[in-house]
Amino acid sequence: xxxxxxxxxxxxxxxxAGCAAPIIVKWVLKLAGPNTIxxxxxxxxxxxxxxxxxxxxRVPWLHVAxxxxxAAASGxxxxxxxxxxxxxxxxxxxxxxxxxxxFQALSGMVERGHNVLYVLYDNEAYMxxxxxxxxATPWGAWTTTSKVGNANPIxxxxxxxxxxxxxxxxxxxxxxTANPAxxxxxxxxxxxxxxxDGARFLHVISSCTTGWRHDPSKTVEIMKLASDxxxxxxxxxxxxxLENMRITYKxxxxxxxxxxxxxxxxxRHLLKNPEYVKKLQEQVDAWWAKYGHxxxx
Amino acid sequence: xxxxxxxxxxTEPGNSVENKTGxxxxxxxxxxYDKCIRCLICxxxxxxxxILRHDDEETKQKTPAPKEALKKLPVVEIDYDYCKGxxxxxxxxxxxxxDFVKEEK
Lengths: 297, 105
Description:
- The complex is a heterodimer of chains A (297) and B (105).
- In chain A, strand 5, helix 7 (183-195) and strand 6 form a beta-alpha-beta unit.
- Chain A has one domain: Rossmann fold.
- In chain A, 54% of the residues are buried.
- Chain A has helices at residues 21-32, 44-49, 69-83, 95-100, 103-112, 163-168, 183-195, 219-228, 258-261, 274-291, and strands at 36-40, 61-63, 88-94, 117-122, 174-178, 200-205, 234-238, 246-249.
- Chain A contains ten helices and eight strands.
- Chain A is of the alpha/beta class.
- In chain A, strands 2-1-3-4-6-5-7-8 form an eight-stranded mixed sheet, with helices on both faces.
- In chain A, 34% of the residues lie in helices and 14% in strands.
- In chain B, 13% of the residues lie in helices and 17% in strands.
- In chain B, the strands form two sheets. In chain B, strands 1-4 form a two-stranded antiparallel ribbon. A two-stranded antiparallel ribbon of chain B has the order 2-3.
- Chain A binds chain B through residues 5, 7, 9-23, 26, 49-59, 180, 183, 209, 215-221, and chain B through 1, 4-5, 8, 10, 12-21, 24-25, 44-50, 53, 55, 79, 81-82, 84-88, 90-92, 100.
């Protein structure tokens, strides 16, 4: 049965105008259908879609705490298994609730091999509490806890945590990075993730108009630039076989990283110094030099 | 609901539709049905979701689309009760069939 024309995510939620997270959520739910239970980590998505006594979810939905979406999803999966019910159990977490705070619960869920699809919507900082840096914040980004000034003209000094590779290294059934702006690739990966049994992990980039400091209408355009500049590469790994990682998307010609930086206020300071832009370009080029041969559309 | 439920359980699915977020809007997207090629990209990317798609003869009659446009299905319609005016549809429309105009109150 195809549920693409139905909406399991209702309007009237409090997500910012131009937020990309609802685009990801509505498509994951459309492709999963009504036979689904959702578990949500604390974050923008949880707070803004379930302002008591209202909910935007038309499928059963559970929130427990910040750190344990994966643990709660594991419990639901174990109960469904004991009852002999076949359900889609999907956990949604932001980068804070996945890459940092919920990481041990997620690691345990994948190690135990629970039949859960975990979707990380990665907006690259703690946006819900006011743009604090997280493990997923990229190098050079301004946040309120990686401030830019004379003492530190760069912003965040550490690179982004390669969380999808870490989860793949757990021998998860299926791990992929995806970008809703590269829509066909995104949709294929969600469908593929839903088709497997076992622990599955999707790392989806999710632009944040408030924290990335850009015009709300540019959300999809900027996310597309993230993959067209090579900053957010799209790949997949089955059964933890990182040696045979498959890069699924590569632009015909890579755009320079400036194009991704320019529309975003969080990178404005980098553009003042060509050295910093060059340094970021080198980081991106190094990734593609190391892994580019895995491209296999 | 006037009583707080045990465990803050919300029993009515999708009741956030009671929040009319259309009041947030500063700019308003308006579809130009003469230019629309029915690619559904606006429907695909609307984060609310506040773009409705009509695939059948029955519901399309309620849309504001002119009669001429209704000959070709599906028809998209913006639900101004919920549209927050982010402008993603306006920015992503490949044939510039969506205008983005200042909201008049």
